Amino acid sequence: MEWWVSMPKLELHAHLNGSIRNSTLLELARELGEKGIIVFSDVEYVILKNDRSLTEVFKLFDLIHVLTTNHETVARITKEVVEDFAAENVVYLELRTTPKRNDSKGMSKRSYMEAVLEGLRAVSTVEVDIFHGSDVESHANAHTLCNGCGMNGTRRKKIYVRLLLSIDRRETREAAMETVKLAMEMRHLGVVGIDLSGNPAIGERTTFLPVLEFAKEKGLLVTLHCGEVPNMEEINAMLDFLPARIGHACCLQQEEWKKLKSSKIPVEICLTSNIRTETISSLDIHHFADLYNSKHPIVLCTDDSGVFSTTSSQEYAIASSAFGIEKREMFDLARNAIGFIFADDGVKLELEQIFDLAAERLQL
Ligand code: 6MZ
C-alpha cells in the first residue's frame, strides 16, 4: 500500500457524511446513547456492519445524520475528513455535502455550510487552499482560511479543497433551489458546483432537472449520480443534460452506453462502493475496464470512505490489481483527472506541477 499512498491523488467524489471515521461515529453514538436519545448497542452494530445493500446504505445515512446534527459536529467531521484525505496524499479534494436545515438545532442550510468552513479552518495537519482566484475580495476571504500558511517560513504540505453542494433526491424543488442559490452566494468561499445524490429509488427528474438547468445557466458546474439503478428514461435525460461529470454509471444499457461514450462526459468511478452495494456483482465485469480501454475520461473515487471502509490509495491499488494496470499507468490515470476538476486553470497548473515533481520522486 505504501506506494499507492505516496502517489498524489485527486478525490472528486466524496460525500462528507459518508467519509466519517468509524471511531468518531461510535464516539458520537455513545454520547447520544448516554443522553438516552438512541440505544448505543443497536447503533454500534449498524456502524460496524460491513456488507450493506444500497437500501441499507441509505438507512445508515439516516442514522449518521442523527449523529451529526449540530454545527460543532459538522465542523469536527469536516476537519477530520480533510485530514484523513491529506494523509492519503490526496492533493486535491472536491468534498460534497448536502446543506441541511434543522430548526431544532437552529441550523439553516447556510449555517450548516458555515460549520463546514469552520471545519476547514480547524484543519491542522496540512495547509488548506480553498480559494484561488484573481478577485481581490475573494482572495482576502480565502486567505483567512489558509491555516498556518507560511508559518516559520517553512512550506507545509498542502491540500486544495473545493466544495460541491449536494441536492438530496428527497428534497422539494424549493429546497433544491435554495441549495443552488446558496452555492452561488458561496462561490467566493470555494463552492464550485452542485451534485445530485441520494437514494436513486426516490425522487422524480421533473422535480430536480429544472433546478439543475438553473444552476448550469448561472455557471455552476454540475455532477449527477447517474445510473446507480436501472432507470433508462432518467439516465437518458441526465446524459442529454450534459453535466460536467457523472458518478457511477453502473446500469446503462447499450444505447445509453453509446451516448455516454460519444458525449465524453467524465465518469467518477467508485469500485468498492459499487461492489459493496451490489450495484455491480464483481470487479471482472465492472465497466471501469471498458471505459479505461476506450480512453473515456474517468477518475477513481471513494464515494463514502467511512461507510465502505476504503481509502483513495486502496481504490488505486484495487484497480491496478483487478485490471492489471501498471503503476505508471495508474499514475497517469490520476494525473489525467486534473482535466475534470471544477476548480480554475490556476489550480490545474499547480496540480500538474505537483504531479511532475512526484513523477521524479517516484522515479516514473
Ligand atoms: C447516492 C449517496 C451515496 O451529503 O450528508 N450519498 N447518494 N448514492 C450513493 N452511493 C452509495 N453515498 C452518499 O453525505 C451523505 C449523503 O450523500 C448521499 C446521500 O444523499 C447521503 O445522505 P452528506 O454529507
From TrEMBL:
GO terms classed as biological process: adenosine catabolic process; inosine biosynthetic process; nucleotide metabolic process
Domain Adenosine deaminase: 8-352
InterPro entries named in the record: A_deaminase_dom, Ado/ade_deaminase, Metal_Hydrolase
Protein name in the entry: Adenosine deaminase domain-containing protein
Signal peptide limits: none
Cofactor: Zn(2+)
Molecular function via GO: adenosine deaminase activity; metal ion binding
Keywords: Hydrolase, Metal-binding, Nucleotide metabolism, Zinc
Organism of provenance: Cuscuta australis
Family according to the record: Belongs to the metallo-dependent hydrolases superfamily. Adenosine and AMP deaminases family.
The reaction(s) this protein catalyses: N(6)-methyl-AMP + H2O + H(+) = IMP + methylamine
